[in-house]
Amino acid sequence: xxxxxxTPNVIAIHLSISEKAKNEAKILFESINTNIKERKKDAKxxxxxxxxxxxxxxxxxxxLGKIETSIIFAVSAIETFSNMSIPDEYVYKLKSPQKTxxxxxxxxxxxxxLKDKISKILVEVYSSKILAEQTFWNDLTELIKIRDSIVxxxxxxxxxxxxxxxxxxxxxxxxxxxxxxxxxxxxxLAQKEHNRS
Length: 197
What we know:
Elements (H helix, E strand, L loop, with lengths): L9 H29 L1 H5 L1 H40 L6 E4 L4 E4 L1 H7 L2 H12 L11 H15 L18 H20 L8
Antiparallel strand pairs: 1-2
């Protein structure tokens, strides 16, 4: 059946999924910290220990599911934004002392790292300021690394059960995705002609 609707914006959908999951993860994060303080005595009681362990384990698994969802969709929004921002005719020149390599749009999408796409190519495409000098840059690069470790786990030590997901700073890192997109939007709006938009 045909359903009349406005064309969905994939970037906005990814950011929306990320934001909802992040907000749910924040609630769980606070609950976990409150639960640890409140149930400290119960954890010492042999009769209540299993109940406390099950309760905490469920909360932690729910939290991990939400925070991973938020991270993965935040970085997916960045990737989609990056790929859609590159004009079809754009050619990226990667220079080294021995040679200059040329990459067309399809080759950029497949062979250039996300970090290089946003810090070099998009800066050129949008005629923006240097992205690496922005206050959110470190959070953004860490967010991409965290997503990569979640998606490309190579051994048991690489799993998402690392400390970085349990730090309060993870929420700020997730927010860096929208800050990056806003950064490039502001660069476009600052120009007299909006042909790049």
